[in-house]
Amino acid sequence: MSLVKLFISWSFYILDRVRDRYIIPMTGSLFVIVLRLKGAKLGKVKLYGKPILKMHPNSEVFLDDNVRLNSSTFKCTSGSIYAPCKLVTICASAKISIGKDTGLNGTSIVARSKKIIIGQRVAIAPNVVIMDSPFHKIWPPLERNNYSGKELDTDIYIGNDVWISTGCIILPGASIGEGSVVAAKSLINKKFPKNCLIGGIPAKIIKEF
To answer: What is the pLDDT of residue 3?
Structure first.
């Protein structure tokens, strides 16, 4: 490689590192202000890119210290992010709580009326969806698009030190015990114990640690 090409390559490398380390976090600090104004309770969080927050005024969204919301594909190291991090509460009784040192990458969390509790040091890979409601009735068909009840909504719990791999879907009533690992593209629709590897559609226990 010629000296000119080497210089250009290193220049872009340095610019990318500056953007990754300084510019994206700096702009994220502006979005922290927006989240606080909307009513979210925040510790010392870190935002990379612009997240989406839509919350009922009487609901609760709590992000503890060193929670990291990555909505930037540029910042993401393990894949492309399809959409920014999204936190939504629909009813006054809804609650989203995320513990210390937890990282989300393009994660969508929707609490319709129940609690979605995520513990400490949880690692969530890109493009994971978590929701406490099916949002539609199964039967009868004529009532599927007019479901205003909450009887199908169920709490979701994710324990400390859980690792959720890319593209997983976590449905109402799911519970993942601390220390467990969820394989990529898995669908979680029930309770799982701590310290196990789970995966599949629907997920099952593959291995206990």
So the answer is: 83
Q: In Å, how far are 1, 102, 163, 178, 195 from 175, measured between CA atoms?
A: 53, 17, 13, 10, 13
Do 95 and 115 meet the contact criterion of CB atoms below 8 Å apart?
Answer: yes
Q: What is the pTM of this model?
A: 0.91
Whether 136 is a known active-site residue: answer yes
Using alpha carbons, select from 83, 85, 35, 84 the residue that is nearest to residue 61: 35
Close Cβ partners of 29 (under 8 Å, ≥ 6 residues apart): 47
pLDDT at residue 1 above 70?
Answer: no
Other C-beta atoms closer than 10 Å to the C-beta of 172 total 19
DSSP 165: -
Which pLDDT tens digit goes with each residue over 62-74? 999 999 999 998 8
24-54 pLDDT, tens per residue? 777 878 899 999 999 999 999 999 999 999 9
CB 78 within 8 A of CB 105: yes
Q: Out of 17, 36, 54, 136, which one is annotated catalytic?
A: 136
155: left (phi over 0), alpha (psi -120 to 50) or beta: beta
φ, ψ at 71 (rounded to 5°): -110, 15
Q: What is the pLDDT of residue 155?
A: 98
Q: Which two tokens stand for residue 27?
A: 């702009």
> Residue 59 corresponds to which tokens in the numbers above?
């609901």
